[in-house]
Amino acid sequence: MKKSIDLSTTIGFWIRRLSVSILLAGYFSSPSLAQVKTVEIIDNPLVNEDRVTVRIKVKDANDKPEVFLQDTNFQLTVDNKPLEFRSKDWKSPEDTIPPPAWIIVLLDYSGSMNQQDSRGTTRLDGAINAVREFTNALAERCPKNQVCPKPQVSIVPFGDPGSACEKGYPVREKNLDKFFPAGDYKLSNYLDLLASETPCASTNIYEPLSRAIRFLANDADPRFTIPEDPNQPQPRLSVILLSDGYHNKANEEQDFENLRALLKRNEQIIVHTLGYGLTPEQLGQKYGLGRAATRRDIGKGDKKVPEEEFVDQARLAEIAQITGGVSEFSADAQTVAEKLKLFLNALLGEYQITYSEPNAERGSKHDVKVTVQSVESEPKGYTITAFGRSLPLPTRLIMLLVIFIVLIGGGVVPFWLWAEHLKREAFEG
């Protein structure tokens, strides 16, 4: 009896534990229960006669792209009135034709990239392989039986000359403008060339990033500007910064403030950052600091962090946050590749809803809002084109009847009366 009671107690204990675990697993894995933080309508709605298309970006509580929602999670409000849309008119990010995209990948080529990561792969090899996987995934981001614009990618190594390296990797316009379509063999060959080199430079993060931002912000370049046709999607402009170090210049604070101002002036350009190495917490544990490592801990000797191992996680996260980008950190090549694929969703992870404007009068103005799990977007306005949609069939029949009556009353009847009058005159004469 005692054994039976003990067994029942044990079973009851584990049933409760397993039930809680199952509920928690279901909560975090269920797309419909994902915690949404922000909802944004990207660009202005596209209008084709009375059909309106909106593109929507959704972020979760961690400011990461939420790409696993269903159509039932979305509600439309047009002119402050709920509007139903058909399930077939909703598209997930995988089914949406991606807009034109111009992506610059800034790749740290400092000497520390020759070191091995936590899995024994050199950081350079890990970074190159991860970028290769990322560009291949970009090339495949197109729905079946559709023609999509290929995202354009420029891989730009950066690094200042140092005591052991006179050459360095300066960032110039010609380097930034070396775009290749994602998946193109020329891009693969260029990655092979970069992999064959030996990084040798010191880390200067802010200047290369500033040059990339200014390059993409060039209003005179039609590739990066808003198209004149309002029904064409705006190009997506992004910079991915992959670094295993920190900005090691004496005036770091001022350099960062200058960069912050530049990023805020060019809010159409999104910067995603990826730190490659040990986190400050891991470095603090490795070197016995008893806390997370900071810049003040860089140096030589006991309880000092070697310069080539410190990655400024806080600054990388701050840079991404200013632009609405994603910041990630990784200690090994495999995770770097996974994080870059997360950036893919951040770059092109947009939902799409198309609906019929219920009051599509010519030249009429309207606004639309999207709500996802009680989180509402800012409204976006649009105007029905001058041509508008064709009139409803009943209206067209009424107009035809009116025209017919006018023709009979104003043309046929008077002519018939005049003809009868002439006949009577001829008969009487």
Description:
With 429 residues, the protein is an alpha/beta fold. The protein has a domain at 101-348: Rossmann fold, CATH 3.40.50. The protein is 36% helix and 21% strand. It is built from ten helices and 15 strands. The protein has helices at residues 2-29, 123-139, 173-176, 185-195, 206-216, 252-265, 280-286, 313-323, 333-348, 393-428, and strands at residues 36-48, 51-60, 74-78, 81-83, 90-91, 101-108, 152-158, 180-181, 236-243, 269-276, 327-330, 351-356, 365-372, 375-376, 380-383. The strands form three sheets. The chain has a six-stranded mixed beta sheet, with helices on both faces. Strands 3, 4, 13, 14 and 15 form a five-stranded antiparallel beta sheet that branches. Strands 1-2-12-5 form a four-stranded antiparallel beta sheet, with no helix packed on it. Helix 2 packs antiparallel against helix 4, helix 2 (123-139) runs parallel beside helix 9 and helix 5 (206-216) runs parallel beside helix 6 (252-265). The longest helix has 36 residues, at 393-428. The protein is elongated. The protein starts with a helix and ends with a helix.
Total count of strands: 15
Secondary-structure-based class equals: alpha/beta
Q: Report the sheet-strand fraction.
A: 15-25%
| Distance separating the two termini | 134 Å
Low-confidence stretches: 1-5, 13-32
Q: Sketch the topology as an H/E string, one letter per element.
A: HEEEEEEHEHEHHEHEHHEHEEEEH
The CATH architecture of the domain at 101-348 can be named as 3-Layer(aba) Sandwich
Q: Give the class-level CATH name of the domain at 101-348.
A: Alpha Beta
Q: Main β-sheet, in a few words?
A: 6 strands, mixed
**Dominant shape:** elongated
Our count of helices gives: 10
How is the CATH topology of the domain at 101-348 named? Rossmann fold
Q: Helix amount, in percent?
A: 25-40%
Radius of gyration: 31 Å
What's the mean pLDDT score? 85
Q: What strand order characterises the main sheet? A: 8-7-6-9-10-11
